[in-house]
Amino acid sequence: MLDAGCNPNSVTFNNLIRVHLRAGRTEKVLQVYNQMKRLRCAADLITYNFLIETHCKDDNLGEAIKVLNSMAKNDCTPNASSFNPIFRCIAKSQDVNGAHRMFARMKEVGCKPNTVTYNILMRMFAVPKSADMIFKLKKEMDEEEVEPNFNTYRELIALYCGMGHWNHAYMFFREMIDEKCIKPVKGLYKMVLVKAF
Q1: Range of the domain at 185
Q2: Structure pTM?
Q3: 19-41 exposure pattern, b = at least 16 Cβ within 10 A, e = fewer
Q4: What is the C-alpha separation between 154 and 159, in angstroms, rounded?
Q5: Which of 21, 82, 88, 193 is deepest in the core (most CB within 10 A)?
Q6: What is the structure's pLDDT at 2?
Q7: Whether residues 99 and 171 fall in one domain
Q8: Residue 125, pLDDT score
């Protein structure tokens, strides 16, 4: 491409980065990004999100946060897909305080959490059985009109079943079916119905 006198743009580089990222070749992702910088091709939101995901896949939270910080310096506003890999990385280490700080930062920059964000946080807070925090997150989802999915309900139901709070588990089970028209799988039926009754 370069030999033909055609300069690649961010779309070209993002496609190359995507291929290497999906194949698990994080070193190649960084090589492509460095070539992008050498050619003075500006990174965009997709580029930054891929870089964040790359560092998080390598469990390199510090580098992922550096990329997030550099977005602001380059007038690029992060979105939920910028934060979600960071939350997954934080969740691996069960750094509850770090998750709280990053969630606050996300809101500070005006980034609206999506269903995936809430699901990651609920799963993380389920480990210390922090029912209050999970209930708060679900309430916030409802207030912000972020639509829960099957994974949201699975986390809520598993948490409350694990704590022996069958009424709450059954309440979310009914909400999932009656209000959201989400069909539960056999395992979820067993979790709620067998244990609760």
Answers
A1: 129-196
A2: 0.87
A3: ebbeeeebebbbebbeebeeeeb
A4: 8
A5: 82
A6: 53
A7: no
A8: 86
